[in-house]
Design brief:
73 residues, 4 helices
């Protein structure tokens, strides 16, 4: 569980660097609606997948394509 929190904090930090997560909010490690919205914005920014799939996933999943792009920064 602690490792998951660290992973989400790292995710939130990269999303902040990419302008997708509000910089005035702390990276808490909580994957809620704000993080899901930021993941969707990131996926749209880099055209990770089709718009239909982005909407369907609603930012709830960071899959292999999104993870690969996140890890490229």
């Amino acid at each position: 569980h602690e490792a998951q929190l660290k992973d989400v904090v790292a995710l939130q930090d990269v999303l902040k660097q990419q302008g997708c997560f509000p910089t005035d909010r702390d990276s808490t490690g909580y994957y809620g609606a704000l993080t899901a919205k930021a993941v969707m914005a990131f996926q749209r920014k880099y055209a990770i997948t089709s718009e239909a799939e982005i909407v369907q996933l609603a930012g709830k999943i960071v899959g292999p394509k999104t993870l690969a792009k996140l890890n490229s920064f």
